Amino acid sequence: MAELREVQITEEKPLLPGQTPEVAKTHSVETPYGSVTFTVYGTPKPKRPAILTYHDVGLNCKSCFQPLFQFGDMQEIIQNFVRVHVDAPGMEEGAPVFPLGYQYPSLDQLADMIPCILQYLNFSTIIGIGVGAGAYVLSRYALTHPDTVEGLVLINIDPNAKGWMDWAAHKLTGLTSSIPEMILGHLFSQEELSGNSELIQKYRNIITHAPNLDNIELYWNSYNNRRDLNFGRGSDITLKCPVMLVVGDQAPHEDAVVECNSKLDPTQTSFLKMADSGGQPQLTQPGKLTEAFKYFLQGMGYMASSCMTRLSRSRTASLTSAASIDGNRSRSRTLSQSSESGTLASGPPGHTMEVSC
Ligand code: BEZ
């Protein structure tokens, strides 16, 4: 009898024929910390926040978010929102290399640039989606401007400053690894890197041959010098909006995200641990992330089930029947996705939600 083998499948669901990505418009604004570039897709929708994304180190808004925002099922969501994709300074395509000695902004200063973007666009509130360093930047922004953030999707967030042990490990790795390899080790799991899939080859190539590698190193240094966000349950320093924490089940930042979950308000926070997604779920599992994002928006009252496909509606019904997602939750929700049968089933604290994927 033929043997069943597990195969790793990267989800691919491009736009349908006739579906064309909306026209993008790229802008730059001057801020007290230098200029920042961002790309806007779609038009502002009355009474709706903008979706604002912030990418991780080694990537830019396109290489970090394009597979997610161009995913077929994502279209029915994003057509309801204007999107602002921020490039950290010097990371935009064609960015000139900063002169030697250039003082790159700290992550806190990158967060302080966001009001200039929103003011320029005349947008009052956002739903943020950030990955790694970008998740930190959006969290810092949400701490200082809580009234303007309606929700946050934080992928691979590490809210802690590096401790001296981390620094020692970082220095040691630096002796034997190049900057691109260190950044790849931040983005992907060791298993993914040694598997050297097409995706890894593609991103290794992008980062190793980036004409702005010196700028990337500056963003990397700012990330490694980040301050502690100091989240604490019951403390004033916390995220006040609904938050969806996301991490791959073998991602390098799994422990940091688990710890972050334990420090945030459980009534406002969902935790999604994704199976088979490696370090970058938005690249490898855009379908599952799209579905989770849809539930997240629904919980915020933005995606009425009438806007959703029949399949999505039935999935949502199974989620809402197992747990309320109307914002009046009494405890945190953990979603973990098992690979077998593509089911989402809960882990501790014993609150079960099942979603077919
Ligand atoms: C968007 O529709 O927001 C989008 C499309 C392509 C790449 C990145 C974002």
Write a structural description.
This protein is of the alpha/beta class and 357 residues long. Helices cover 37% and strands 17% of the residues. It contains 13 helices and 11 strands. It has an 11-stranded mixed β-sheet with strand order 1-2-4-3-5-6-7-8-9-10-11, sandwiched between helices. The structure holds benzoic acid. Benzoic acid (BEZ) binds at residues 21-22, 41, 65-66, 69-70, 78, 83, 85. Benzoic acid is lined by residues 21-22, 41, 65-66, 69-70, 78, 83, 85.
Q: Ions, cofactors, ligands: which are bound?
A: benzoic acid
Helix count equals 13
Distance from first to last alpha carbon:
28 Å
Q: How would you spell out the order of helices and strands?
A: EEEHHEHEHEHHHHHEHEHHHEEE
Provide the residue-averaged pLDDT: 84
Question: Describe the biggest sheet?
Answer: 11 strands, mixed
The residue fraction in helices comes out at 25-40%
Secondary-structure-based class equals: alpha/beta
Strand order of the largest sheet: 1-2-4-3-5-6-7-8-9-10-11
Mind telling me the C-alpha Rg? Answer: 20 Å
Give the percentage of residues in beta strands. Answer: 15-25%
In the predicted model, the low-confidence regions spanning at least 5 consecutive residues are 1-13, 310-331, 338-357
Shape: globular
Count the E strands.
11
Oligomerization state: single chain
